[in-house]
Amino acid sequence: MKSVKLKDVEILHPNFQVNNDYYITHFDFKGKDIRSFLKHMGRDKRFIIKDKEETTLFSLSKQVASDILKKNNLKGKDIDLIIYATQTPEYLAPTNATLIHEHIGADLYTKTLDINDNCSGMVTAIDIASRYIMTSRDIDKVLIVGGDFLNVYADPDNEIAYPNFGDGVSAIILESTTDESNIGFIDSIGHTNPVVKDKMVFPKEGLTKMLMQNQTNNYLQWTPFSTDHSNFSARDSISTILNRNNLTISDIALFCFSQFSLADVKVISESLNIDEDKVAYSGDKYGYTGTSSPIFALYDSINSGKVKRGDYILFWTVGSGFHTNTVLFKY
User: Fold this and answer.
1) Please, what is the Cα angle at 180 between 176 and 181, to 5 degrees?
2) Torsions phi, psi of 179, nearest 5?
3) Are 27 and 201 in contact, with CB atoms under 8 Å apart?
4) According to the model, what pLDDT value does residue 306 have?
5) Residue 45 CA neighbour count, 13 Å, CB half
6) How far, in Å, CA of 155 to CA of 159, rounded?
7) Distance separating alpha carbons of residues 173 and 144, to the nearest angstrom
8) 3-class DSSP assignment, residue 83
């Protein structure tokens, strides 16, 4: 069976940066103090799409796809599979992956697919792409592109959603390898427990009612919820995947968790006795970028020298509802 190498990672975000002061002032005017909330979530700065003509697909995703191919001296025709991961697709038809295919000039036999696993999307795409490579005779190079335009769905009156998000996209190239020293993808484990399925909802009452009843409130519906269940899932999933692969916490060089909440990252890390230096966090720099958030953390860790080739990386991320995905990889 073929092994999978994580060849490269790239990110891209808008140029316009907003710090916490803007949101503090915005909600102070509404009589809401969000200072402690921003500290809890670990927010400081975030990049957002400001131009109404911009989208994550056309302004960012196509560019990051071109950038990562050029960086690795690849052409579109070298790619055997394109996966586009998002929970805010620009199009439901055609697939966004098909438009990436056209943009990079991919081959007639290049497979394309979109996935929506909410904020778990990019990690789930790594899982799917790795299994494609390992089991398919004609898939050796996969381009994964993912990103969310969460700010366009954020209600300016909602103090939980509005100051939380940053816009951005990421890209990954996975490729097959016969190098036995490069194990690459090792294992994955999922966990689903829909205890907060009604807390983060879009559209509020489903697409049918939104389209047929001309609903005017098209913002993401976000009400406060406990993260205790997802934090338990993280501890359980991480312990399980390490145990069944005869590894321990100390064997892992880098933990790339969801960047949703700094407080939750700390709870998970402390409960598993993970050294703070091994935990990647970039949510203060980019805001919460949804599906691409663990990849932003990975990108920064690679470029700062926090992780190197041959190191074990563990991804854990969570999607609304909730559902989680944990992926063990050797970089």
Assistant:
1) 105
2) -70, 110
3) no
4) 95
5) 9
6) 8
7) 6
8) strand
**Cα distance between the two ends of the chain:** 18
Place of tokens 């990079």: 104
Distance CA 194, CA 203 (A): 17
pLDDT band at 207 (very low <50, low <70, confident <90, very high): confident
Q: What is the mean pLDDT of residues 241-248?
A: 97
Task: Give the model's pLDDT for residue 56.
Answer: 82
Contacts of 136 (CB under 8 A, 6+ apart): none
Q: Which helix (H) or strand (E) holds 27?
A: helix 20-28
Q: Determine the pLDDT at residue 246.
A: 97
Sign of CA dihedral 245, 251, 254, 259: positive
Q: Which of 263, 282, 284, 268 is nearest to 316 (CA)?
A: 268
Residues 266 and 262: their CA atoms lie apart, in Å, by: 6
Q: 197: pLDDT confidence band, cut at 50, 70 and 90?
A: confident
Q: Where are the beta strands (DSSP E) in the chain?
A: 3-12, 17-19, 45-47, 81-85, 111-115, 141-148, 168-177, 185-192, 200-201, 221-222, 252-257, 279-280, 312-319, 323-330
Average pLDDT for 191-210:
81
* Phi, psi (deg, nearest 5) at residue 66: -65, -40
Identify whether the C-beta of residue 254 lies closer than 8 Å to the C-beta of residue 311.
yes
What HEC string does 153-180 produce? Answer: HCCCCCCCCCCCECCEEEEEEEEEECCC
Q: Name the pTM for this structure.
A: 0.94
- Torsion angle of alpha carbons 219, 285, 278, 229, nearest 10°? -20
Radius of gyration of the chain (CA): 19
Dig out the tokens for 46 from the structure: 């975030």
Contact 184, 130 (CB under 8 A): yes
- In the numeric block, the tokens 């808008």 are attached to 14
